[in-house]
Here is the input.
Amino acid sequence: MSAAAIRRWFAERVPIPPEMLRKPLKEELPTHLKTWLWAFGGTPLLFFFIQVATGILLTFYYVPYPLHAYESVRQITFSLRFGWFVRGIHQAASQLMFVAVLMHMIRVFATRAFRPPRELTWVFGVSLFLVTMGFAFTGYSLVYDQLSYWATTVGTNMISEVPLLGRPLLYLMRGGPDVNPNTLSRLYDFHIGVMPTLFVMLIVAHIALVRLHGVAPLEGDSDRKTYPFFPDHVLREAAVGLVLLLAVVVYVVLSPPGLGTKADPNLTPAHIRPEWYFFPSYRWLKMVPVQVGLWTSVVFVLSMLFWPWIDAGLERLAPGKKLGVLIGTAGWLFTLCLLVWEALS
Amino acid sequence: MTIRSQKYLVAALSLALLAALGAVGSVDAKRRAELMKTRAPLTAGALNPQLERGKLVFAKFGCNACHGAGGVGGVKNINAQTGGEVNGLLRVSETYTREELVERIRNGVPNVDKADPTGPEPPLHMPPYKDLVGGQEMQDLVSYLMSLRPQAGEAKSEAW
Here is the structure.
């Protein structure tokens, strides 16, 4: 059967006009995207795919039950062929995925690419960031060594303090008032079922809106020159993706994942600390009374989510003063300070 | 940067990535060799090569997912007569002959007895492995299972 015959066979069964398939590839992009900094948009997606692939491999051997969880992670890390590599990639790529989402978000924030009519693209983007944090929290809990167990205990304790929804959320996460055998299987369900589903739905909505609106033009940039998405931009994205993949592989080879001591619910470690991406909220909650910390965190997250409208309101309040950029930058810097502070303490 | 040079860059990076993945293979082999070396004194006298192979077969087919790592049991199986859990395997040598155990693995356990006859069907049952495990692998697996013994502190989970 010739290639033309195969094409015809598919065209008859999947009657999508070829030009419709080619259209996204032919999309013209504004020239400011030629800057390498703008080639990071696809990076979170690349890391998500890596997480899905390595995550599926890990589920083949991981047992989400307290009696066996630690032993199965130990087996993956130290006994299985390439187990250390798969777990190492999953762990390292999760950290880079978080950084990539954050960098992408900061870039969009700094260039105010959330301006109308792209508010919902931003809302979906921030939601993706929050789901990424959820991935990180639930994933870390599954290791079931001392630090991961106690980070889960402290983390879920904090959830109970969330205004109004705290107690129902706590029961939903833990399957009871305390961390118990149900907790691990629930966190596992969230990690491999609920969150990936949410992530895919959000990313589809996010990318669909980006494609429908087109790339946001730079504010005050009158340059209307464009260049094609394929192959020009795709090559840049590919180069960035390959460099990062290479970096992850080299990192895992040089620093393979380890494992702490097995979780012991009767022995609280001297220093409980979450993963670094939760440092800002952890430091903040240590600095202020818990209720104040949680209410301000809720306000912070809601402000992030609805920032396009807050920014527009500030612009109406003081036209041309860029109050939104100033307040937002101060917020980012404050968060960064909390992160560094906690890291150094 | 021209398109041509970007293509070369992507090609070079792809090759570098392939080379790095190739290196992962040799690192893995080295790592495993070192682990085997450090483990040898610990397992000497405890597991002979056939039992080691059987242990790997046990992991390969995911037996640990239901019977627990090392066959200690403990995975919930609501309303199962075996204490609401999938049975552990620490006493198979006292319960089965090798031939009976082979038959059990080959045919599985399609119906798990209920603790409460009016209650729900236990969700987990053992599938047949006759199309998956056979020959030397079956012999290694059975030898490994027959070698399992309860240890101090495992009295609760060893119920058959």
